């Protein structure tokens, strides 16, 4: 008994790859290995500028959440500015 050569999780007895990984291998023969790599890279990897945009979006969401939670405070503006500065430092 051996582990799958691709995912290294499933146990295989006869072949080198498990059923799920065999399906991936089949897609490579149908669409070409390069096309599968291209699709995986486009979907699962982010370019640095897209990473920056994602960080900005997440910070904006955090600020909005914090803003909703501070609605009960009297001095909301100062508290919100302080929280925004803390988030920018991260």
Q: Can you tell me about this structure?
A:
- The chain has 90 residues and is mainly alpha-helical.
- It has two domains: 2-44, no CATH class; 48-89.
- The chain contains four helices and two strands, in the order ββαααα.
- It has helices at 19-31, 33-44, 48-69, 76-89; strands at residues 2-3, 11-12.
- α3 runs antiparallel to α4.
- The chain starts with a strand and ends with a helix.
Short structural description:
The chain has 90 residues and is mainly alpha-helical. 68% of the residues lie in helices and 4% in strands.
| Overall pLDDT | 82
How many domain modules? 2
State the low-pLDDT regions, or none.
Answer: none
Element-by-element helix/strand order: EEHHHH
By secondary-structure content and strand pairing, the structural class works out as: mainly alpha
Q: Helical element count?
A: 4
Helix content: 55-70%
Tell me the fraction of residues in β-strands, as a range.
Answer: under 5%
Cα end-to-end separation: 48 Å
Neighbour order of strands in the largest sheet: 1-2
Write down the overall geometry.
elongated
Rg, alpha carbons? 24 Å
Tally the beta strands.
2
Instruction: Give the biggest sheet.
Output: 2 strands, antiparallel
What structural keywords apply?
mainly alpha, 4 helices, 2 domains, 4% strand, 2 strands, two-stranded antiparallel ribbon, elongated, 90 residues
Task: Set down the secondary structure blueprint.
Elements: E1 2-3, E2 11-12, H1 19-31, H2 33-44, H3 48-69, H4 76-89
Antiparallel strand pairs: 1-2
């Amino acid at each position: 008994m051996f582990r799958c050569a691709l995912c290294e999780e499933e146990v295989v007895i006869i072949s080198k790859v498990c059923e799920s990984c065999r399906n991936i291998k089949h897609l490579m023969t149908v669409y070409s290995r390069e096309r599968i790599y291209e699709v995986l890279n486009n979907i699962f990897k982010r370019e640095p500028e897209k990473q920056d945009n994602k960080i900005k979006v997440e910070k904006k969401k955090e600020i909005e959440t914090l803003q909703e939670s501070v609605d009960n405070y009297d001095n909301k503006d100062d508290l919100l500015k302080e929280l925004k500065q803390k988030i920018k430092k991260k």
